[in-house]
Design a protein that fits this description.
2 copies of one chain form a homodimer. By secondary structure, chain A is of the alpha+beta class. In chain A, 47% of the residues lie in helices and 15% in strands.
Amino acid sequence: MRQINSEFGPHGDIVISSRVRIARNLESFVFPHLLSDKDAQAVSTQIKKVLEKENSGYQNRFQSIRMKETDEVDRQVFVEDHRISPALASNVDKGELLIDEQSGCSLMIHEEDHIRIQCLLKGLRPKNAFEEANALDDWMGKHLPFAYDKRIGFLTACPTNAGTGLRVSAMLHLPALTMMGHPDGLIRAAGQLGFVVRGVFGEGTAYLGNLYQISNQITLGVKEQEIIGNLEDITEQVILKERNARNHLLEDRKVELEDRVLRSLGVLKYARLIGRKEAMQLISDLILGSSLDIISDYSLSCLHGLMEQIQPANLQKKSGIKLTETERDQKRAELISAALEQGGNNHVYE
Amino acid sequence: MRQINSEFGPHGDIVISSRVRIARNLESFVFPHLLSDKDAQAVSTQIKKVLEKENSGYQNRFQSIRMKETDEVDRQVFVEDHRISPALASNVDKGELLIDEQSGCSLMIHEEDHIRIQCLLKGLRPKNAFEEANALDDWMGKHLPFAYDKRIGFLTACPTNAGTGLRVSAMLHLPALTMMGHPDGLIRAAGQLGFVVRGVFGEGTAYLGNLYQISNQITLGVKEQEIIGNLEDITEQVILKERNARNHLLEDRKVELEDRVLRSLGVLKYARLIGRKEAMQLISDLILGSSLDIISDYSLSCLHGLMEQIQPANLQKKSGIKLTETERDQKRAELISAALEQGGNNHVYE
């Protein structure tokens, strides 16, 4: 099996990314859904002031993007790229994103809570992501009066986030387990440990592209380190299962697997129209085929990148004009075919 | 639309072939299913003697292939290539094929009847095929006492062939009509004129590769010229419908059609395993795409040839060893991919 470049982080061929999110609120303001425009502005100003303090270490790192200064397509692109939540995208008036491209850290202001600190890293690195987010949380907590209750912990707009305010998750690509019909067992097992398994593209998209997100459900009455340790344990078990399933396919159903991967390549290269769901599935096949050396022309970064670029708002943004669904399917097919042509040229001898 | 090379005969992009079959029996012998080995041999000897007469014009033209001197795979290849009927292939002891590669004429000896004269020509040429077969019939009738009844006409083992003993058929490729769900109407209309529509690869194969065979059902009480004229009329109507359907697809569903043809090309090039039914459908798409200039790399003869070469016995024969179904699907995929590679190189600037 191919060596995964450190660029993708540990287990980068299976774990796309690790993410940590910390919810915080300022005690002197009501929660965002009841907040006046004036107070919303005040909260935003206070937060940015703290980040820009001379000895913060965060000076000039964050770029501010106010939702009301973006258009609908831009906001959807942010959602598809997992930079913001759908909830922030729909809070057009008050929502704001502070983003540091370098560290992978960002702050959503006036999502469900006043502050949502996020850190997203490639591969299985929830600890590193937590350290980054936690440092940011510590600095802000020193200078801002966070809503906190001795018994409960941090207070949040929705009680399911109260306590640690911490949500950790890993986004996994599990094509072999899916092919063998095993994700149900995974979902049950995760549930028993207080974790939940979801698709990554929101409600109703199922497990598009065989991408699964595992995240903790419980934020109250558990230590942060414990949540992160549990996520790491569960994810490592799932990785092991996926690797076993891949080896099993390679040993017992090699020709069938090659056939599937190569057909997917053929269709992706030649199709003139392709929907999101099918494209995600076929690219997933290429990623699997690539990790098992069935094909060697495409880099993981090309294929992971493709999965993002073919999302509807990304295509819309790229084309610059409003597209019908058929036009979008056509643009998607063009983009994929061009990317594979290019990928193929660049990586023939990889 | 591309000009069809005369090699393929009139309407060669839609009509694969025209075929005429004339059933005859020698009056002094019982029908084949009751014939002794000795008499069967006598019939065969008489027939060949007549063909080899000095002034016959058929001298040294026919090659004799006795079923008992072939193996099972050879016989199945003959059936797949439409050189013999399944009935001749199963009459291993007595069955014999006399074949003239040049004219497209052949004689099956001891199929259901003592003699089945056949002529198969490319394109829509039932008249020419009939002339060839009829000339052969005339010569043989002059020198052999055919079983004949003044009231009925020629007598045959099965009464459904009595009278003219003539069956004419055209093998048509109708992808556009099939795609638009119209063949039902065609089947009904043909039935009303005493013709029947079937698939070409025998029972249970449906219309594999969108290939349809139209043939007369009635042989008694109609003139030969009438049967042939009717087949020509019906076939020309069907050709017109197929052309209209193709134009309709090209005008109204162009991108969808391009998508379908190119996906089929992608799968055929890249698949590692492919079954007969799927392969026939995808090659049918390429033939359609080729006739509508959606693709231009492959000749009609390459694609029609592929449809024959991928049949099970053809693959079996080519590989030389007994294949499992999976191995056959693998060989089929290899053969197609190699043929398309080659076709693509040869015809890039066509």
